[in-house]
Amino acid sequence: MNDQNAGLIRNFYAALAHADCDAMERCYHPEVSFGDPVFLELEGRGRVMGMWRMLLSGAGGVAVAVRDVTARRYDGAAHWTASYVFGTTGRQVVNEIDALFRFEDGLIVRHHDEFDFRRWARMALGRPTGLPFGWTPMFRDTIRGRAMQSLEDFMRAG
């Protein structure tokens, strides 16, 4: 176990839990990349932090719980739970997420979150949309396109 990198992961999630974007940003390498089932690949600290700022700007905030933090010299992992109200529908979401990290220069240079897209869609969008369509490629592409457009709009307005 690499205590410095494990501490970096814990610091990141503590900052996320407090919606402290400046502290989150200090955990990321300038050339960080982020990916998850919705935002497939975001490159660079500006875009990655733009996503976090957009997500944290919603009413009600995000409750964060992290566990199972492990870290070695170059990589790490954690499991975290994000609880929030999905802004588009007003529905409660409790998302279980597995995160993988790569470290460079004492910072997070790669952050990848993985979660069950179909389960998330069912919670966020409800029935009938989320249940039957949450797994189809066309539906996923639609959600991803909307998310990226929202990010672009948010960053332009900022």
From TrEMBL:
Record-given protein name? Ketosteroid isomerase-like protein
Which source organism?
Streptosporangium saharense
Keywords recorded for this protein, A-Z: Isomerase
Pfam families (UniProt xref): SnoaL_2
Q: Does the keyword Lyase apply?
A: no
Which GO MF terms does the UniProt record name?
isomerase activity
Judging by the UniProt lineage, the source's domain of life is Bacteria
Q: Kindly list the residue ranges recorded as spanning the membrane.
A: none
Lyase among keywords = no
Q: Where is the SnoaL-like domain?
A: 9-111
Cross-referenced InterPro entries: NTF2-like_dom_sf, SnoaL-like
